[in-house]
Amino acid sequence: MNAVAKPPVLLLHSFFGTPELMEPWAEQLRAHGYHTVAATLPGRNPTDTAVLNRSGFTDYLDAALAAYDAIGSDAIVIGHSLGGLLGQHIAAQRRPAALVLLASVPPGTLWVQPSSMPYLVPILPAIIAGRAFRPSTRTMANVPLNTLPEQERQQLIPRLVPDSGRIFRQMSLGVPALRVKAADVSCPVLCVSGGADRNVSSWISRRIARRYRAEHQVHPSAPHWIVAESLTPQVLPPVIGWLATATG
């Protein structure tokens, strides 16, 4: 008798990310029998600052929904950071097999942690203007990548790309377009977060998990960039185990 086919997986990358940066997860998921599709959000591959300057959250969501619909069947959605917020919206508007939120930003205001404030000041003009920007190497190293090995940070930073200042402004204001009704999300949800995350506070991650009555896996030393290749052996196996139970 043939084994029941596993649902396909849609991978949604983060701010300043690209589909290629989700490849460590895609590779391991394929090794466990999952077909993976990585969405490309607006203004990248290649980088297009004109697109980024005019893109807001709804433009990113339209791209994510189109990628989901192109799969043609109920899929697992795995989203990192901004990709997690997009995943929440997909789960509210479609009926995915499961939703995995990796260091997800919330469906509302993203409050800045005090330790990250000094790194926010230089990028405020771009956020206020809604202009495409890319944080400095110093900011990338000390905020989203803060606890990764130095060599891995040096390899990752050149691969990070500009992103939409308009979306950061929307998150800072907690605009209605970001919000998701918890009751509209009916699929199983897993939240995964890093205890050393300087972008999304631990209390925000806990609140998201409670919101969806989700299991919450916490990796105390992991930063916001929880999808880093060096963390895959630590972070991915419990997710694979959860998926087997949630969609088996």
Automatic annotation (TrEMBL):
GO terms for molecular function: hydrolase activity. It comes from the Bacteria. The keyword Lipid metabolism does not apply. This is Alpha/beta hydrolase. InterPro entries: AB_hydrolase_1, AB_hydrolase_fold, Carboxylesterase_BioH. Residues 9-228 form the AB hydrolase-1 domain. The keyword Hydrolase applies. Keywords: Hydrolase. Gene3D superfamilies: alpha/beta hydrolase. Transmembrane segments: none annotated.
